[in-house]
Amino acid sequence: xxxxxxxxxxxxxxxxxxxxxxxxxxxxxxxVIKLGTLVRFDQASVTAWVKKRxxxxxxxxxxxxxxx
Length: 68
Prior knowledge:
The protein has 68 residues and is an alpha+beta fold.
């Protein structure tokens, strides 16, 4: 099993406030493991969750100019 992370560790890693993590847990937005009253996160599951949300940047248009 992978390492389990706390709310504070995930918040630091994702550069958001712990309150945001708790909100995401409440909404079912982020994968979570509940152990009684404790909330923990599987590091591999959160990594996969982040990668799933990765999008390509905007396509930059190439301007071709004929200067002959």
